[in-house]
Amino acid sequence: MTDPDPPLVRVLVVDDDDLMRAGLTAVLSSDETIRVVGEAGDGRAAIDQAHVLEPDVVLMDVRMPRMDGIAATREIAAAAPGARILIVTTFEDDDYVFGALTAGASGFLLKRTRPEQLIAAIHTIAGGEALLSPSVTRTVIDRMARQPPPAPPDSRRLAGLTPRERDVLELVARGLSNSEIAATLVVEESTVKTHVKRILAKLDLRDRIQAVILAYETGVVRPGA
Fold it and tell me: What's the predicted TM-score (pTM) here?
């Protein structure tokens, strides 16, 4: 019995540089599990294309005319929640990382990423996971630490979590990986994965990075604690 073919991922490529856009399209088109369904040269065109084409993944640049990638990400994430957004940029500034992820992006890659890593990232995003390196998670944590003190925990929003799920949420917010959480709580890593999935479902969160942000906003974890 052969393994089933991986699902085809429909991708919209957004970049204001014609050569870069063509290069990204060529790289993605070389993989038979990915189909580039459209291209856009600015944020406004990306929003229009996303509505019409309904891509699984939007490969989004940051600095673009008419509307930048962060503003476009915010609109697409709100209007088309089925589209996952992967930011690909030359800029590594904390403002870009934080702005993109809080706008609703599910991952962040630099343009110097190797082609095979880009393809793997698209499948990760399309599969419903967030593409988070520890450095990106800690960028968000550090940025949240510079925000005003959060309000007291929102007991209504968090009321559905079990005590163990609350523990896992706190550790996720501190930037720990699933394996590190498993070691801390002395449980199997598969158990942690199950807890994380339930937390996201109960709190209606798109991915792990949204859980980090929510935990700081609601006071589950306090900056500097």
Answer: 0.72
